[in-house]
Amino acid sequence: MGFLDLLVVALMPVLKVLLVTAVGLFLSIEKINLLGHEAANYLNNIVFYLFSPALLVSNLAQTITYKSLVTLWFMPLNVLLTSLIGSALGWILIKITKTPKHLQGAVIGCCSAGNLGNLLLIVIPAVCEESNSPFSNISTCSTNAKAYASLSMAIGSICAWSYTYSLVRVYAITNTEQSSILSSEAASEPSSDSCTELLLTPSYNDGSGNLKVPLANLQEMTKISLMEQIVRCLKKVFAPSAIGAIAGLIIGVVSPLRKVLIGNNAPLRVLDSSAALIGQAEIPVITLIMGANLLQGLKRSEMDIPAILGVVAVRNICLPLLGIGVVKAADHFGMVGSDSLYRFVLMFQYAVPPAINVGTMAQLFQSGQGETSIILFWTYALASISLTLWSTLFMSLVT
Questions:
Q1: Distant-in-sequence, close-in-space partners of 361: CB < 8 Å, separation ≥ 6
Q2: Cβ contacts of residue 279 below 8 Å, gap of 6+?
Q3: What is the pLDDT of residues 305-330, one digit of tens each?
């Protein structure tokens, strides 16, 4: 594949994102006001609870099977490494640039979570469709590309909505607790945010100065407390998108479920097609929201230029270089197989810009929405160049 061909393949998806972002920015200006602050909040919740889980369920159920999942076992580890390495570099960045506390979660989130779904679903199959593609024949390459991209999207979503979501949430809560009111409340009563909080049970004085708890009430409240604690912990660890990804993997891997739900002759195929129809709305909606948040950031942003440049350097230089080392080491020990397209995808996962869902997280926690959008804007603007250059290098390394 020539440089100009690769440039077009890498440039088109990024330009689409930038154009839709511009539409979201236009819709949020005061004279139009179709995508104001409240509207963006409502849309974020719809994306979080409906669009994203539906998209993951439909894509994974259709493309992932037990055989392909066993073959691709290294990809979940690779995605986890991208998040861990990215968050570590982000932590170093906020220390070097002395990023304000309320913006630290946005910086670390953008360094940690990459766009492992939308871009791969567009770019990887497009690479296979090129007439001079270096990856086997077109039919096999396209089938494998869709499976690789779908699994990447699932694992990336689970990491983003569990690991990165928790990081952004922790920083948002930490910043909120800086106020004296919340600090005094936290000192006077147990935190409802803790998975191990102690729930008070009814008690009475037995006349000797000791408090007694009725056994029946104690047993009942212990059960309720345990159930509530489990539910709260699960809600914090597994966001709706992560649950949707797990459900899609189960449907794809379990053959009886797959036969009932997936395929032209499946009796319940309408459920899968309905989920796919709903999920298709996620990509344009979250991109429009990013444009709306960008307008807020352009009006008033506290994000320093060194922090923005640092995130750009982490995602466009440091992570891709480290990704080459990780994949090469895995290849040396025979952990990634002989498929050159698979190794290309593993390297590509380190070179993508930040996940747009980081903007959704910032919106949900009302912390650094505009600044996050500015980081996303510049990283996506520069991705047209960086993805092209890195893709060319990755292809030369794996073929």
A1: 109, 164, 165, 168, 169
A2: 51, 52, 53, 54, 55, 56, 57, 58, 59
A3: 888 899 999 999 999 999 999 999 99
Residues of the chain short of pLDDT 70, as ranges, are: 1-3, 5-11, 13, 130-132, 136-139, 173-239, 296-303
CB-based contact 135:126 (threshold 8 Å): no
Please check whether residue 32 lies inside any domain of the structure: no
Q: Work out the angle at residue 244's Cα, subtended by the Cα atoms of residues 291 and 45, and round it to the nearest 5 degrees.
A: 35
The domain that holds 364 is classified in CATH as 1.20.1530
Give dist(CA 205, CA 143) in Å, integer: 71
Tokens 């036969």 belong to residue: 259
Residues 105 and 368 sit within 8 Å (Cβ to Cβ):
yes
- Domain hosting 141: range is 3-15+57-178+241-268+294-398
The two structure tokens encoding residue 220: 């009942």
- Residue given tokens 């025979």 in the structure block: 334
pLDDT in tens, 43-78: 888 887 888 888 888 878 887 788 777 788 899 899
Q: Residue 67: count other Cβ atoms within 10 Å of its Cβ.
A: 9
Number of domains the chain contains: 1
Tell me the two tokens of residue 46. Answer: 């719809």
Whether 116 maps to a domain, the answer reads: yes
Other C-beta atoms closer than 10 Å to the C-beta of 308 total: 20
Q: Which helix (H) or strand (E) holds 212?
A: strand 211-212
Contacts of 337 (CB under 8 A, 6+ apart): 71
Span 106-132, pLDDT tens digits: 889 999 988 887 778 777 877 777 666
Instruction: Please report where in the chains the tokens 């804007």 appear, as a residue.
Output: 377
Is 145 a domain residue?
A: yes
Q: Residue type for 271, please?
A: L
Residue 59 is encoded by which pair of tokens?
């894509």
Residue 189: partners with Cβ closer than 8 Å, 6 or more residues away? none
| Helix runs in 177-281, H state only | 180-188, 215-237, 240-253, 255-261, 269-279
Residue 229 domain-assigned (yes or no): no
CA distance 175 to 106: 12
Which residues lie closer than 8 Å to 112 by C-beta, 6 or more apart? 83, 86, 87, 90, 163, 164, 167
